[in-house]
């Protein structure tokens, strides 16, 4: 069996000695995952679209290393912290005119 993928005029392929008779699409999907990663897609992104036994990273590893991306929970916390800081800063302002 041979799978190939052409992106930006570059061809990536994976070959297997096993013949594919269409009975086990799971094996085909696993090879396609590897093909996508070899073509430059991030393993975490590939994992997120395939529900297979093999994952490039565990869920814990994905949460710990977001590759520079922030999750919504962190963004929510940052927003809340800014609101708290603004509230505290405004608590001590003297708004009486001189």
Outline the fold blueprint.
Elements: E1 2-7, E2 10-15, H1 25-38, H2 43-49, H3 59-64, H4 72-91
Antiparallel strand pairs: 1-2
Q: How does this model look, in words?
A:
The protein has 98 residues and is α+β, with helices and mostly antiparallel strands. It contains four helices and two strands. It has helices at 25-38, 43-49, 59-64, 72-91; strands at residues 2-7, 10-15. A two-stranded antiparallel ribbon has the order 1-2. The longest helix has 20 residues, at 72-91. The chain is rod-shaped and about 85 Å long. It starts with a strand and ends in a 7-residue tail after the last helix. The model has no long low-confidence stretch (mean pLDDT 77).
As a percent range, the share of helical residues equals 40-55%
Unreliable residue runs? none
Give me the number of helical elements. 4
Specify the structural class.
alpha+beta
Rg on CA atoms, Å: 24 Å
Task: Give descriptors for this structure.
48% helix; 12% strand; 4 helices; single chain; alpha+beta; 98 residues; rod-shaped
Brief overview:
By secondary structure, the protein is an alpha+beta fold. 48% of the residues lie in helices and 12% in strands. It has helices spanning 25-38, 43-49, 59-64, 72-91; strands spanning 2-7, 10-15.
